[in-house]
UniProtKB/TrEMBL annotation:
Record domain Ketoreductase: where: 6-179
Protein's recorded name: 3-oxoacyl-ACP reductase FabG
Transmembrane segments: none
Family: Belongs to the short-chain dehydrogenases/reductases (SDR) family.
Cited InterPro entries: KR_dom (IPR057326), SDR (IPR050259), SDR_fam (IPR002347)
One term of GO molecular function: 3-oxoacyl-[acyl-carrier-protein] reductase (NADPH) activity
């Protein structure tokens, strides 16, 4: 089987980076499914309604993909949320909501996907983190903690099941031009551009092409790695 015939599941595939990743795999000829809680997924992608904070929904989502396309050979764990506020104002709910989605939700989908991957002795798991995982960011103690934990997750998964042909890597996007960043003021964006050695914001395609590479046969000897896609913003971290 060529890598382009494989089944891909992208979590959080209705917008932003997740949508671009789903489109990139679709355009490369993969069989692609994408989860969403609301809103549509790209044309040609199997839509799967799923809230990854609910294990029952996660199991149902995988069963749906398995019935329609086959077992998930490539998992792109992208779904995530933010609830930004300064540490002293951050409520338990602000913390719990972000951790339960970004970290525990990712754990749920990785655990479920790994079963079939181990049996098949092939799998690609890509966890979408963030430059703030290791760089830090004021007002994002919850978010940066959840994203930093994905590094430990990927490396532990690699040590557990790496001998079964399964790789697990982390993509750490920097400041990417999406609908979320579009609402920021020009001064904020200009300040970020000054701090980014590349001198520009990243595009969702920059992240999608990185995910494509890590999922390919050519990346079969890369595992437990953190691959920044940030124009140099976080280098040294």
């Amino acid at each position: 089987m060529t890598d382009q015939a494989r089944v891909v599941l992208v979590t959080g595939g209705s917008k932003g980076i997740g949508r671009a990743i789903a489109e990139a795999f679709r355009d490369a000829g993969y069989r692609v499914a994408a989860t969403c809680r609301s809103g549509g997924v790209p044309d040609g992608v199997l839509p799967v309604v799923c809230d990854i904070t609910d294990q029952v929904q996660v199991d149902a989502a995988f069963e749906h993909v398995e019935a329609e396309l086959g077992f998930v050979e490539i998992l792109i764990a992208n779904a995530g949320v933010t609830k930004d506020t300064l540490l002293m104002r951050m409520s338990d709910d602000d913390w719990d909501t972000v951790i339960d989605t970004n970290l525990t939700g990712t754990f749920r989908v990785v655990r479920r996907a790994s079963r079939a991957m181990m049996r098949a002795r092939f799998g690609r798991i890509v966890l979408v983190s963030s430059v703030v995982a290791l760089l830090g960011s004021p007002g994002q103690v919850n978010y940066s903690s959840s994203k930093a934990a994905l590094v430990g997750m990927a490396r532990s998964v690699t040590r557990e099941i790496g001998t079964r042909g399964v790789t697990c890597n982390v993509v750490a996007p920097g400041f990417i031009d999406t609908d979320m960043t579009a609402v920021l003021g020009d001064d904020v964006i200009a300040d970020y551009k000054k701090r980014i050695p590349a001198g520009r914001l990243g595009s969702v395609d920059d992240v999608a092409s990185t995910a494509l590479f890590l999922a390919s046969d050519q990346a079969g000897y890369i595992s437990g790695a953190v691959l920044p896609v940030d124009g140099g913003l976080g280098m040294g971290h």
